[in-house]
Amino acid sequence: FVVITADKKKESISQSGKTTTLSLDVSSNYSFIIKGTTKVTLDDNLLRIKGKLVELPFGIYTKPKLFFANKTTYISITETQENKVYVYDSAGSLIKGFPVFGTSVASIANGSKKGVLKIIVMGEKKEILAYTFR
Q1: What is the C-alpha to C-alpha distance for residues 78 and 98, in angstroms, rounded to an integer?
Q2: Long-range pairs for 3-8 at CB < 8 Å and ≥24 separation?
Q3: How far, in Å, CA of 103 to CA of 126, rounded?
Q4: pTM of structure
Q5: CB atoms closer than 10 angstroms to residue 84
Q6: Which of 82, 95, 96, 131 could join 87 via S-S bond, C-beta 3.0 to 4.6 A?
Q7: How many CB atoms within 10 Å of residue 33?
Q8: How far is the C-alpha of 85 from the C-alpha of 10, rounded, in Å?
């Protein structure tokens, strides 16, 4: 088990019960998420997907979200000042056509046609946007 504490320490407990503590040299905005074999971290504008570094434009970002659709893991993240939604695959490649306009955390789901995905995100006030991509 691995836990990142509020004071940015990595606490690990092995299956045998051994515990270790490691102080992380990260910003106060550090976040991470793991789903299956995909580990994603965000430290200010430095996004790491399975260890691959993706340097995002400077800004304020939402925590990364992971989605599994069409047998692929996707990572979405929203820059909240410029209102841009980015979607990456698990290899750390930006999906063609992104970023798109959006003001909230995005959700990704299978579309009605085979191979087509939908991303749902807030737009302007009282507006919901739906984008499709492959």
Answers
A1: 11
A2: 4/30, 4/32
A3: 11
A4: 0.83
A5: 19
A6: 95
A7: 14
A8: 29
